[in-house]
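Anyone? Bumping this.
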Amino acid sequence: MKYELVMGLEVHVELATESKIFCSCGGHAAANEPNDCVCPACCGMPGMLPVTNKHAVELAVMAGTLLNCKINQYTTFDKKSYYYPDLPGAYQITQWFNPICVEGSVEVTTKSGTRTIGIKQIHMEEDAGKLVHDDWTATSLVDYNRTSVPLIEIVSKPDFRSGEEVIAYLEKLKSLFRFAKISECEEGAMRCDVNISVRPEGSDTLGVRSEIKNMSSLSSIARAIEYEAARHIDALERNTEVLVQETRRYDDVKGRTFPMRNKETAADYRYFPDPNLMPIIIDDEWIAKIREELPVPAEVKYEQYVNAGISEKDAATLTAERNLCDILDGAVELGCSHKDVAGWLLTDCAGILRRNNTTIDKLDIAPAKLSKIIDMTNSGDITRVAGKKVLTAVIEKDVDVESFISENNLTAQNNTDLIASVVQKVIDANPAAVADYKNGKTKAIQALMGGVMRELRGNGDAATVNELIIKKLSE
Amino acid sequence: MKYYISEISAKGSVAVDDNILVKGTPASCGSRMLESFVPLFNAEAVDRLINAGYEISGKTNIGEFSLDLLGETSYFGECTENGNLVSAAASLVAKGDIDAAVNTDVSGYPRRAAAVSGIDFLKPTYGTVSRYGIVAAVCSAEQIGVSAKNAKKVKELISVIAGHDSKDGTSLPADSYSYELTSASGMKVCIIKELFDKASDDVKKSVSDYADKLRSVGVTVDEVSVPEVFAIHAAWNILLCAEFCNNVSRFDGVKYGYRSENYKNIDELYVNSRTEGFGFITKASVLYGSDVLSKGRYNDCYDKALRIRRVALNKMKELFASYNAVLTPVCSQKNYQPYEICDAFEKAYDENLFTAIPSITGLPAMVTKGVQLIADSFCDATLLSLADSVEETEVM
């Protein structure tokens, strides 16, 4: 018999806000030591009250907009109670009764075509802390740096029919959220629970469901789904086991899923509205303002760039990263051509970042500085070599373009008399190379070029230098 | 007999209840659980008092998390005078040791305390005084109020502590409120018959006497029937224990406060710390609170209680269309005698009948001369004016 997979996803995404969702602690991702980024509020001290981070609400509305959701204009926070040491208040503030976004959808494309995945809801909540187990001393330590970091949980409908669709969906969310600066979506900032069941193809009843909790890498999610689907089919076909509705965790080393202790899953969370947080009213005006801040979608940008002469491959690389698009658009606005900027970004900037052991998505350069370097190189005020030097200094130390050029004598030497005298000097000092050239070894001119450029500290205009050497040698 | 859990300044004129944070001074909340808990900051109300030049005398003893009648469930012992229970703060004010006290009105304890000790207490409109720095028990209702010998002194302090605080998400936007005392003459007050009937004869007499005094200063006093008071009482007790259960769940022995020495794993750490750290009234409230929030009971209990909260507010607004204030008893009896601890939950939750309306609705309430006056939201000044008008006749 052929079987069909039926899956629904719950995806937790960390929002890219400056501070936590109910207090002003910021920068938890950069915290070096456990409990560096905590205050009395986010570590559960009595007497503290939560105050909602407006930016988190705005990012959640943005996410809902991108996933074609209806925005609930009256949205509330609720308390979810359970005891665990990483939860300092012994309750999590989440949205149970009135989530911020409902009823959305997103299109997912795989090799087998494009399908629409329904979104049941998106709700906001705070993250919990982290337990660190020290097996040596048999103790557990608590790190509250991550408590109260804002999350959205995106709950899909049970619309997935293959592991590929799940992966394509997660990749789509990741690129949408990164591009809109809703989330960095870095390792661990996107976590996923998969609800999975199988049924004979053509059946319209649902099979017994298991939930695989808390996975964060795409490849292990794919493997977990594959394993779990096989386990269900085995159970149905060959009666290897009786399926029960349960929560499981996936062990990527063993390549298997295991049931979680019943105790961890059978809790009654005793949800009730949080009286400390007033309902949030999101009026039309606010929604409009938030939507204005959404970027032009990456697909639209891609078309723009290709039409402006950028190759499809480069346009794809550029539109994968919002920062590159922002820099490119900024420099184009200042008069540079799309092609020029794309070249500098993907060749020169990328190279400099590689040497600094980082990647292009981390590039941070003011479009005005980049456009200045491009302009000065194009007009011959500095050479391409000097341009790269300036660019390196700008990326590494954020120097001022013009003062760096003058402090380091990088202005291009267009003075023919000066260049001619240097050429003469180099010819005089390299009789061997001159002799080689005159004997037909034209490549010897390279050595002379190098000598002149060294004397001019790289600032000689290559064409002029080349021309003058040939002229001198033929005299 | 412990009036102060921590003394701060002998020259101080204002006491602060032990569930309101004062930086560097333990905030026990009358519980063994928090005996060793020292807060890192001042409550907003305490900051405002200090900034206005008031010196804090110390942290006054309260019943565990202020749930009980008058403070008798404190881990540090009860206060009695002439064989009757009194509250530490109200008694200090009545004796003239201090000018005033600030107390968190969680479920009516400072109102009962004022009645028993013969002083005034104002529970202001919910949202007008910041709750930042109250050890939370019932977030949707509790407010810091002022105990003092007369309405003028209450007015002086409430003017200092009220006003918007961005650290409290439920703090209302106004930076300050007017508590100007005006003549009560021409005002209209009604007595809720159902609550009057439930009080003892000597309490009934206090209410009737107070009604006569109001009439003597030109106030009209009628009687009205509000049969909803019993449903309101039940609903309030549900909301009270539900929120309380959730708020004290943070006291688990993990981060601060009492930790049992007797545990082998995390579950035992939780259970034993809480069993040994909490007193009877807290445990009983937590059990009831867990029950009313549980899956099978939420709709019949908690959700219904929220609906009754709305009914209560609508009913009161109806009364305020015709009356400036409502007059009720605040206690079933004039005095309370010490009792067995295992009765604490029942006694306090029964007595909440008289204090439930202001608690569940957030309306301002004032206790004066042993009776309770309730007014519409933001009409705290009406209450002070009524109390002051009667008090003025006695000065003369």
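Late reply, but here is one note on the structure posted above: The interface with chain B takes residues 40, 43-52, 79, 81, 83, 85, 88-91, 140, 142, 268, 270-278 of chain A (CB under 8 Å).
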